[in-house]
Write a structure and sequence with these properties.
- The protein has 260 residues and is of the alpha/beta class.
- The chain has a single domain, classed as TIM Barrel (Alpha-Beta Barrel).
- Helix content is 39%, strand content 15%.
- It is built from ten helices and eight strands.
- Helix 2 crosses helix 4 and helix 7 packs parallel to helix 8.
- The protein is globular, with a radius of gyration of 17 Å.
- 49% of the residues are buried.
- Bound molecules: 3-methyl-2-oxobutanoic acid (KIV).
- The site of 3-methyl-2-oxobutanoic acid has 11 residues, from strand 6.
């Protein structure tokens, strides 16, 4: 899988499937089931480390888990999250992104919009593929006042739209849209040529991602309302993942729920 293929999926309205993974065994299982994209999410702070948020995840953590996932994932496109405070300056962004690419990532993702212009541009100049992340940004959960739907009023919706257009112009290759109204996600997806991958952002994104532990019903913390437990009604993890893939490809998932 590569970004060109994901763009072809967008053009032909074939939905992109994405799951998070944090180790080689789950990565291999998801890969064997045919998931298009595997994200080594900093959600590992919640589901692996048991923390309340992702702010304590370090570059060492991300490099360790990315290396493990890269050993299991052979076909899926592998995206690795840049953790909190790892992309403050352009120089720091480049060093940390290279570190994740060196251990097997094929693209790095970080949260935020135009405030990170220098970071997006330095990665573009160094040919490091980037996935953006707009809408709810878990690394800014405190500033955002909790896990809440973003972009509900005109001004904040416009900010997300303008950020998305800027990111595309700075070479960002794909864009995660988290927890925004479905109509806004649809508008952004239609106005960009790069694929969008939604989570709690409605059916009209070009693809969907869930935290794998959530969709297997094994998250011990809060379960967002937009999550569906795919293990319930299936008798193995493989069947649950295949069900997830089919539900996205035939557009029966997600439903209408966007809130946490
Ligand atoms: O860290 C993560 O798992 C993510 C997804 C929820 C998009 O960023």
């Amino acid at each position: 899988m590569n970004i060109e293929q994901l763009k072809l999926f967008k053009q032909s309205n074939e939905k992109i499937t994405c799951l998070t993974a944090y180790d080689a065994s789950f990565a291999k299982l998801f890969d064997d089931c045919g998931v298009d994209v595997i994200l080594v999410g900093d959600s590992l702070g919640n589901v692996i480390q048991g923390a309340e948020n992702t702010l304590g995840v370090s570059m060492d953590d991300m490099a360790y888990h990315t290396q493990a996932v890269a050993k299991g994932a052979k076909n899926a496109l592998l995206i690795a999250d840049m953790p909190y405070q790892s992309y403050g300056s352009a120089e720091q962004t480049l060093i940390n992104a290279k570190r994740l690419m060196d251990v097997g990532a094929q693209m790095v993702k970080f949260e935020g919009g135009r405030e990170h212009e220098a970071s997006f541009k330095i990665l573009q100049a160094n040919n490091i593929p980037v996935c953006g992340h707009l809408g709810l940004q878990p690394q800014s959960v405190i500033e955002m006042g909790g896990y809440k739907v973003q972009g509900k009023d005109e001004a904040s919706a416009k900010r997300i739209v303008d950020d998305a257009l800027a990111l595309e112009s700075w070479g960002v290759q794909t864009l995660v849209l988290e927890c925004i109204p479905a109509e806004l996600a649809k508008q952004i997806s239609q106005n960009l040529s790069i694929p969008t991958i939604g989570i709690g952002a409605g059916i009209d994104c070009d693809g969907q991602v869930l935290v794998s532990y959530d969709m297997l019903g094994i998250n011990t913390g809060h379960m967002p309302k937009f999550v569906k437990n795919f293990l319930s009604g299936n008798d193995s993890i493989e069947s649950a993942v295949e069900d997830y893939i089919h539900s996205i490809k035939n557009q029966t998932f997600p439903g209408d729920e966007h809130s946490y």
